[in-house]
Amino acid sequence: MAIIVIGGMIGAGKTSVAELVANALGTEVFYENVDDNDILPLFYTASEEEQEAKRYPFLLQLEFLSSRFKNIKDALINQNNVLDRSIYEDWYFCKINNKLGRISDTEFKIYEKLLNNMMEELEELPKKSPDLMVYLTGSFDTILHRIGLRGREFEQDQGLMDYYHTLWSGYDDWVENYYHASQVLVINIDEFDVVNRPEDADRLIKMVENKLVEMNIETSVY
């Protein structure tokens, strides 16, 4: 039984990698709630005044936390599942928005209390955490290029560049020094294009396979 989370910046290609790994494992992907998330476009497009009045950043983090908690509960009771981003990364996004003043200190404390209560509930499940994070890292230019390629209009505003850069600049440090839920396999997306180069897709799956073997976890990978 292997539970794998795919982590990384906005636009890093998590969904493509999650589907690739899940297909190799013959299992299911638990997706990040983007298409049915009414708050997400508002988070990107609302003015600062609207953000302040409506508290969209805080509401968005609660929405993601709720959907992520459901996903992780479902994934942890089944075999060989893949999560498109982890509940642990939600904390990082919330902290960055707190640092930027978009989420107040009081809201952040409430968020942490709720997250901690949710994580305590996981103690009732057969597994308490994922086995492996496949972490997608890369240059800021690559991130921006891929955000552009996927074409979500609300993500393209030039005013978002500072926000993206703040998230990106601290992500590697958070994974290296603060993420302790599982082992980590780092994939440099400057060197991998699993969508357009089949050889890169095969190479990534082989790296995941080797890592799981190293961890003494049996799966159905190839």
From TrEMBL:
Domain of life: Bacteria
Deoxynucleoside kinase domain segment(s): 4-213
Key words of the record: ATP-binding, Kinase, Nucleotide-binding, Transferase
Gene3D superfamilies, A to Z: P-loop containing nucleotide triphosphate hydrolases (3.40.50.300)
Keyword Secreted attached: no
Residues given in the record as ATP binding sites: 8-16, 146-150
Active-site annotation: 84 (proton acceptor)
CDD domains named in the record: dNK
Gene Ontology terms: cellular component: cytoplasm
Family label: Belongs to the DCK/DGK family.
Protein name stated in the entry: Deoxynucleoside kinase
